[in-house]
Amino acid sequence: LWQQISDRLKDEISVSRFDAWIRPVSATQNGQKLTIAVPSRFFMEGLKNSYAARIAELAAEVTGTDIDLSYQVDTSLATQGDPEPAMPDEADLLLVDGYIDPRFTFENFIVGSGNEFCHAAAQAVAEKPGAIYNPLYLYGGVGLGKTHLINAVANALISKNNYRIAYRTGERFTNELIQAIRNGSTDNFRNQYRQVDVLIIDDIQFIAGKDRTQEEFFHTFNALYEIKKQIILTSDRSPRDLTNLMERLRSRFNWGLVADIQPPDLETRLAILSSKAELAGVHMDRDVANLLATRITNNVRELEGALTRLTAHATLTGRTIDVTFARHVLRDLLHEEIRAISVEDIQKQIAAYYNINIREMSSSKRSRTVAFPRQVAMYACKELTTMSLPEIGARFGGKDHTTILYAVRKIAKMRDEDEDFDEEVSRIIAQLRR
Ligand code: ADP
Ligand code: MG
C-alpha cells in the first residue's frame, strides 16, 4: 500500500521534495491500519503539515476504504544513510506550488468578450500582487476559464519571483483542516497558511455551509489581508448568491474586485478552438470549427472536449475531420434541433417580419432595407440549423461563407449592444423554434 501511495506522490511532487520527504519514510500495514515511520520528530511535523492530507486521500483512493493512519518516530531510519533533509523554511513545509498546473498560462489564454475583464484583473494582480485588487474574486459558470486564469497568475508569479504561493481548492482546504483537527495540528495548519505571499482558493463555494472551515478561513483571510498579501478566490456564484456563507466573509469577498466571467462569443470560441487545435497539432477545417463554435456555446471545456474526441476518432479511424464526420462523432454534444427548421421557413418568416419580398433573401441588393433582414436571416440560420457557413451561403443565392460570418458577427454584436434589438431577435428566434 505504501508503495502505491508513494508512487502516486512521486508523480505529484518535485523530485527534491520526494527525496527529502517521502523516500526516507517506511511504513507497515496492519489490516486497516497504516503506520508510517519517520526518522525524527522534526521530520514528522514537516511530513504531517505538507503531506498527511494527501497521503490519507491516496490511501483511501487506493484501497477504496478508510485507512487509519498513524505516524511514529523510528530513529534507526535516520542513520540508514539518507541524510536528514536540510532544515526547510516554514514555507517549504507548505508544498507551496503543489497543485498549480503549469499548462494554464496567460500565453495560451484567449482573450475575448466574456473574459476580458477577468483576464485584465488577473493580469493586474500578477503584476502587483497585494497592491490593488485584494481580494480578487472571479466567478462564473463551469468551464469558462476561472481555474485557467488563476493558475496563469500563479505561473506568472512563479516565473517572476520567489513568491510563496498556496494554491488550494476549497475542498482541499477543507480536507486539510479536518485532517489537522484530527491530528491536533491546527496551529501548524494556521501558521503555514499565514506564511504565504499569495493565497489562491479555487471554488471557494465549497466552504459555504461548513462553519468550522469558514471560521478558519476568516482568520486566515484577515491575517493575510492585514499585511497586504494577495488573496484570489473563484466561485461558481457571486458573493451575494453564496447562501450559507457567513456574513463577515461575504462582505470581505466584496472588499476587493469582484469580476464575473461570461461565455465567450462566437469569434472568441473560434479563436479558442483554433489555438487548441494548433496546440494539439491537428488540422481542423473552417467548416468544422464553425460547426463546433456555433453549436457549443457556453462551456469552453466542452468545446475542448469535442476537439479531443474528434482528434481521437480521426486518429483511430484514419479519417479526415470534416463536417459529416464531426456531426457523427459529436452528435450528442451538438444539440441538434429535434425538429429541423428549414432555411425556407427562416427566410419566409423573417422576410414577412421586416416586410420584404422573400426573393430578396437570395438577391445581392445592398440597400439597408433588404440587406439587414437578410443578415438577420443568415444569423438565424446559424443559430437554428446545423448548417455550416458555406451551406448557408449557398441558400442565400450563393454567397461566400465570409459574408455569412460577417452577418452572424454583426448581428451578434448588435444584440450585445442594443437591448431592444436583442429582444426583438430573441422573439423572432423563439417564434421560429415553435
Ligand atoms: P472553470 O474553472 O471556469 O470551470 P477552466 O479554467 O477549468 O474553467 O476551463 C476549462 C477548460 O477550458 C480548460 O482546459 C481551459 O484551458 C479552457 N479555457 C477556458 N477559457 C479559455 C480561454 N479563454 N482560452 C483558452 N482556453 C480556455
Ligand atoms: Mg474551475
From TrEMBL:
Key words of the record: ATP-binding, Cytoplasm, DNA replication, DNA-binding, Lipid-binding, Nucleotide-binding
Predominant subcellular localization, coarse grouping: cytoplasm
GO biological process: DNA replication initiation; regulation of DNA replication
Binding sites annotated in the UniProt record for ATP: 143, 145-147
InterPro entries listed in its UniProt record: AAA+_ATPase, Chromosome_initiator_DnaA, Chromosome_initiator_DnaA-like, Chromosome_initiator_DnaA_CS, DnaA_C, DnaA_dom, DnaA_N_dom, DnaA_N_sf
One GO MF term attached to the UniProt entry: ATP binding
SMART domains assigned to the protein according to its UniProt record, in alphabetical order: AAA (SM00382), Bac_DnaA_C (SM00760)
Subcellular location, record wording: Cytoplasm
GO cellular component: cytoplasm; plasma membrane
Domain Chromosomal replication initiator DnaA C-terminal: 342-411
UniProt region (Domain IV, binds dsDNA), positions on chain: 315-434
Membership in a protein family: Belongs to the DnaA family.
Known partners and oligomeric status: Oligomerizes as a right-handed, spiral filament on DNA at oriC.
Purpose of the protein: Plays an essential role in the initiation and regulation of chromosomal replication. ATP-DnaA binds to the origin of replication (oriC) to initiate formation of the DNA replication initiation complex once per cell cycle. Binds the DnaA box (a 9 base pair repeat at the origin) and separates the double-stranded (ds)DNA. Forms a right-handed helical filament on oriC DNA; dsDNA binds to the exterior of the filament while single-stranded (ss)DNA is stabiized in the filament's interior.
Protein name: Chromosomal replication initiator protein DnaA
